[in-house]
Design a protein that fits this description.
Length: 291
């Protein structure tokens, strides 16, 4: 009989405790919400609306060629004045022009440079010195004396540059990177990742003559390890009518200021180490690499 009388009292106490807990937690929630609203007003950082506009004008590739970790970081730097409006190498002059208008500055341009591989020998044209069975990575292979390639200056051929290219502009063909100049933006990722330092960003005209070799060995030794090596014979220097060719440290060099694109150097080169590159005149014309 006593149990029946105490049950309603116990229920009322439990309900009272439950309601007290709800009110208490609600009070704490309201208090902290009030504190957070004050903190938000006091500590918030005003965002310049131009940041989103500049970000939308950028390619969004986050390639890092500008020196910033992402396109958003670059947009913030440009708006703050910590980076010039033409910092985006990948976007070129078109993007620079859009950003210059958004920032209210004068018209600017970007000097266009594209990647070039200073090696012209595919795997079958290189002498092998060993059988490499390690990690298929140029960086890893460079640690063990360049994998199986006898030439210490040439391409190792495992395609680290292809993996690093965010624009799908590099394909490995016969163990040698082929760069699609239509897709290349000059971001420089391939330059940074190549352990042999045989990729550089170069200025290009409609017709170009480039030395596709990096060997500093003397002619006989260079020829023994690579069919496409510059052998420092000096024929390019001898026959160039504009004094644009010079052999230094057993390697031919072309002075772009003097070069008139006559092609004599490429014709006279006995190993085809000097090649002609013709840029497309429009987007539908493919890039061609000739002798």
């Amino acid at each position: 009989m006593s149990n029946v009388k105490t049950r309603p009292l116990y229920g009322r106490k439990l309900m009272s405790l439950f309601l007290t807990s709800i009110v208490t937690m609600g009070g704490f929630g309201a208090f902290f919400a009030f504190i957070l609203s004050i903190a938000h007003k006091k500590l918030r950082v005003e965002v310049d609306p131009r940041e989103e506009q500049v970000l939308n004008a950028l390619p969004g590739a986050n390639c890092g060629a500008c020196g910033f970790a992402s396109c958003r970081a670059l947009a913030e730097a440009i708006v703050k004045g910590d980076a010039p409006v033409n910092s985006c190498v990948a976007g070129g002059s078109e993007v620079a022009e859009k950003i210059s208008r958004l920032m209210g500055v004068g018209s600017v341009t970007v000097q266009k440079k594209l990647a070039f591989v200073h090696c012209g020998a595919q795997s079958e044209q290189r002498t092998k010195k060993a059988i490499y069975q390690g990690v298929k990575s140029c960086r890893a292979a460079s640690i063990v004396m360049g994998a199986d390639t006898a030439c210490p200056y040439g391409c190792i051929g495992f395609g680290d540059c292809e993996v690093a290219c965010p624009f799908n502009a590099i394909k490995m063909v016969g163990g040698l990177p082929q760069i699609d100049l239509n897709k290349c933006t000059g971001c420089g990722n391939c330059v940074n990742v190549c352990p042999q330092n045989i990729i550089s960003l170069e200025s290009f005209d409609d017709i170009n003559y480039k030395v596709a070799c990096s060997s500093l060995d003397k002619g006989k030794k260079a020829r023994q390890v690579c069919q496409k090596a510059c052998i420092a014979c000096g024929l390019c220097e001898k026959f160039c009518p504009f004094d644009a060719c010079e052999v230094k440290n057993n390697l031919a060099h072309i002075d772009l200021l003097n070069c008139q694109r006559c092609g004599v150097c490429a014709i006279k080169c006995p190993t085809n180490a000097i090649i002609q590159i013709s840029l497309p005149l429009d987007e539908n014309q493919p890039v061609t690499l000739d002798k």
